[in-house]
User: What shape does this take?
Amino acid sequence: MNVFLLGLLRGLSIRGITADVLTRATGETVEVSAPFPGVRIFHVPCGWKEPPSRESAFASIDLFVERCRILMRGERIEPRVVSAHYWMSGVAARKLSAAPMILCYHTVEARKVPAPGPEEEPLSSVRRGMEAALAREASRVVCFSEYDLAENRRILPELSEKGVVIPPGVDDRFRHLPPREVARAYLGFPQKGMIFLLAARGDAGKNADMAVAAFRAMRDRWKGPAMFLVAGQEGPEGAPGGDVLFLGALPHGGMPMLYAAADAVVCPSLYESFGLVPLEALSSGVPVVVPEGTYWGDRIRSQGGGLVYPREEPERLSGALLDIASSAELRARLSLEGPAVAAPFTWEKCTGSWAELLASVSTSGSPR
Assistant: This one.
């Protein structure tokens, strides 16, 4: 979400659209940053405890709203339209302003894969109720693809009238990577052998454990050198290193070099509202491996750039990894197809569509 918002705010700034962003923070005083002309980000302390959690974030909403009201009066912030990203942002926005609201869920709770265990997460039912209420109250709801809108409409019927599809863009730096040997030397990876990359935060729905198991099964049949990198997650305590390397949390600015070092990017998540990682990998000319029955599964099956395996048969992921490892010709073909698949996704198109949408629901006919 942060990657998306950074691209959106930069594009709106280029179009001369001003925006004030209110976001939660720890500490005691409000901090203000101005990353782009006309864009101010207010980091508002609200008692949010460290380490952050969904529960502490939800508990901090009322104090966040109270302090934002004070801030908005002092700064004379009177929005003509409010854009809320994530359900808690929508809850806060409804309390803060009567201006028309454009909502972007990014993910919908009812479509998420539940975490292992007999008990539901405490906030899960609360979130589902809030997301349904916000769908009724929002002026428009933005989805990133027609596929995502169709799936969300099954749960939130209001989206039949309010749903709008605006795909995100991808930064140009992902379209111009250094040579693989340069990236591997920079990162300290071996020059020879296969490198598979999975980039995702720690979440049951991201399917990282299944992907690691598929890689190990592939290694039983593939005798050449190979590594599996997991960016965004810490490895299980006491887990051996070897050919599976957990890189932990990484800044987004470091991702292009990782893509450049990889022979393929594995994206096994069963639910993404869109999935920026496959888009970045395709833009970079790196083959991707995704399950069918997802947005990128359908697009890659029809347009190329990667391999698709049946989501009901996760063991087939191992075969897809073996196919990529075994054929330099296949890797070369998929690498050439990827940038063409990703070419339509630009921030210029995305922010142009957002500017039109903001103006269409603004109380004054122009966005702010």
